[in-house]
Amino acid sequence: MQPNSSARRDQQQPSREKGIDNRRGHFGNLNAGVAHGGGRQPANVVNDEGNAAVIDTLINSAPFQRLSGYATGIFKTWAPRLYEYCSMQFERLLSSDSSLLRIFDNSVMAAAAFNFGPRTVCVPHIDYGNLPFLWCWIWSLGWFNWKKGGHLVLWDFKLIIEFPPGTVIAIPSGVCRHGNTCIGKKETRYSFTQYSSGGNFRWVDHSFKTEEKYRASLTKKEVEEEKVRKEGRWEMGLNLFSTLEELGLHT
Q1: Positive or negative: CA dihedral 110, 193, 61, 44
Q2: What residues does each domain of the chain span?
Q3: Rounded Cα gap, residues 143 and 170, in angstroms
Q4: pTM, whole model, 2 decimals?
Q5: What is the pLDDT of residues 221-231, one digit of tens each?
Q6: Nearest alpha carbon to residue 56 among 19, 8, 22
Q7: What element of type H or E holds 137?
């Protein structure tokens, strides 16, 4: 398979250093893929030459290819409508601009984050830039006693969930405040996440125009119709979820 190159980038990322402070915690991390943050339209994430090489190695490695494919299988099984919506929008986005990179051929998620730790402990946060009703796929990795630490905490739901290394959890990270508990001083914890920016979907829905240009192109009646669509978007998103009965399962 031809490697997916992340060398060409359009949104700058920090250097991969241990102990970098970011809004999610005190650890180094890098992102890759297509994002819509801080710019006027979706673009490839920028990494310097050294970090791009690290990202390319990880993305094209068999372990991360398998993690991505496994998450896709779960996604298609448990939320087929949401999966199809995400797939359709992502394909439309990619077809609109040949420079945009698909980092995982077996995934419909537009971007990924690699958290290098070495002790990845996330403080409570919400990923506001992500599509609110879309799941974010989080893999826990490393070597730590998962009975004593590294638990996923969903603060709004008052849930604390054991999160062993090598397991994946999917949450709507754009609306769900989350983080994880500490691990031992001599333990290591890393994480790998796949997500999609809400701005990507808005760009597609707005005929590949900025919010300003899209609104300027609408008639007064269309402006009112767009307002109604926005107000009902949360319900549209919820209707993309599947019930156990639809999936042929019964409680």
Answers
A1: positive
A2: 11-203
A3: 21
A4: 0.87
A5: 999 999 999 89
A6: 8
A7: strand 136-143
